[in-house]
Design brief:
alpha+beta, 10 helices, six-stranded mixed beta sheet, Antithrombin, Chain I, domain 2
Amino acid sequence: MFKSAKFFCSLFWIILISANASAQTSVNRANLNLGLKLLQTQIAENTDNFVVSATSVYTIAAMLAVGAEGQAQEELQQNILAPDGTQTPNITDSENTIHQSKAVEIYSSVWGDDFNRNYKSIIKNTLLAEVFSLPSTTDKINNWINKKTKGRIPSLLASDKTQPTDLYLVNTIYFKDKWLSPFDNENTKEMPFYSLNRSEPDNVMMMYQQEAASYYEDDKMQALRLIYKNGDTIQFFLPRENIDFVSFVKNLHAEDLNPEYTHKEDVEIYLPKLNISYKIDNMQELFQKMGVHKIFQPFGNPLPHMSSKPHYVRRIIHSANIKIDEEGTVASAATVTEMLEIEFSPAEQYVFKADRPFLFMINNGLFIGAFTNPEGTDFKDDGTMPEDTEESGESFLSRIKNKLFGRRDTNNEDDSTEWKSLHYED
């Protein structure tokens, strides 16, 4: 039983959209793993309110993987599409499963004049994606996103001119459903919410109902699953009061987000009304933290099956929002990948950047050493080495060799004296 509103001091939510709440296809598992990765990566750096659509990001990754090969494709498969080591699921499974829900609308599109014919055919047939010529500005792309999200994401891209070889991949998701058991407006009251990193509680409008529900608890958390009219579900995961929220998220595993619920006839439910929006302008950084690098490198040709011209991913932008009230939930998300042509495609570049401890050696052991700490390095203020007042090793050895093997400068008195000192009488 949820005994007090203060249990919500560390609340976060993950929406698992499926016509069958118990269905665990390979695509659903991949979506869940990706969502957990995104959540953990973000919460580790920023504990502000956060919402993301793992399904939208997953779909964009699949669209990229279709155009990639070699290491670029492997990174997407191993770190996003099938991170648990299983065979990469067919993205069609994801689309078929999700479209069984009447509450979910998913759309994909590609924008550009340089897509390969085969790539466009795959995207159209598997994702039912729309294919558009490249507009002169990004406004048409924004208008398409705005329409598909029913006005909830009106302008994802900055209004700007496009370049003739630019390519865009776009995905949108819109979700709207009503509670199977709505909350009564009369029971919504202002109550305290114990936020992170604040000494005093904030006030929120807290919804309340006493209802039969799917409930789970252990020594780490409480969990609640509510059902919408169309059969979709939402789960809430609430850490125990004595458990740090950031640590709780960090130590979560995918199986923790599918607990063994039991049906309870009498659960007191307190939920704050929510209206959250979140935008990630540089999702490519999250991809890189998860192990995806190749597609972002502006050399070589990481996406050879996408276009006859070499392209790389310049950036990935994601925006999501969710509103929860007494009637139900409405949420939307959009993800855009912007790709630029690689103007020249040289051989793969290599970088040697000695910014950490290293070893060095001269002439197979003439000198050998290790540089581990710059402290005490004898440089002048202008960054140059001090002048060497001693005779160089090469000059010294050369002079000794000349003395020993007979070349002498008889015009040099000092040299003659040195030469004599090197001969011994019997």
